[in-house]
Amino acid sequence: MGYEMLIILLIAMIGFTFWSTRQQKKQQQKVQDYRESLKPGTEVATVSGLLGTVESVDLDRDVVIINSEGSLTKWRIQAITEPPVIPAYVSDDDVDEDGNPLESEDLDQKDAIEAESETVTK
């Protein structure tokens, strides 16, 4: 019985190693494809968090020039891994006191109350 368990464990370890290697290769290929698709005007984020727009790309020298709020900076292409992620903005007016989103009826009612209070104060 000891050998069967050892064989099952060994097969599971080999399967996990194969699966994780495939996932890693897929992720690397995705990043490589993104880097090769860079062209002037593309918005990018660097590994260190700099957000900007690509001004020029030199794949032979692995260099990208990024314009970030008027400042031109030179980066190695390996520093760019993905497009910038812009978090969704939720106004404080669209949530209740506990941070839960208001229903559309509640929003309409709240807008009506605000409009009424503005006309009263004028």
Helix/strand class: alpha+beta
Overall shape: it is flat
Q: In terms of per-residue confidence, which ranges show pLDDT below 50 for 5 or more consecutive residues? A: none
Portion of residues in beta strands equals 15-25%
CATH architectural type of the domain at 39-84: Roll
What is the alpha-carbon Rg in Å? 26 Å
- Name the strands of the widest sheet in spatial order: 4-3-2-1-5
Q: Helix coverage percent of residues?
A: 40-55%
Average pLDDT score: 83
The overall strand count is: 5
- The CATH class of the domain at 39-84 is identified as Mainly Beta
Q: Strand-and-helix sequence, N→C?
A: HEEEEEH
Number of helices: 2
Distance between the termini: 86 Å
- Describe the main β-sheet briefly: 5 strands, antiparallel
Q: Say what the CATH topology of the domain at 39-84 is.
A: SH3 type barrels
Describe the 3D structure:
- This protein has 122 residues and is an alpha+beta fold.
- Among the domains are: 1-37; 39-84, SH3 type barrels (Roll).
- Helix content is 43%, strand content 22%.
- The chain is built from two helices and five strands, in the order H-E-E-E-E-E-H.
- The mean pLDDT is 83.
List keywords for this structure.
single chain; 122 residues; alpha+beta; SH3 type barrels; 5-stranded antiparallel beta sheet; 2 helices; 43% helix; flat
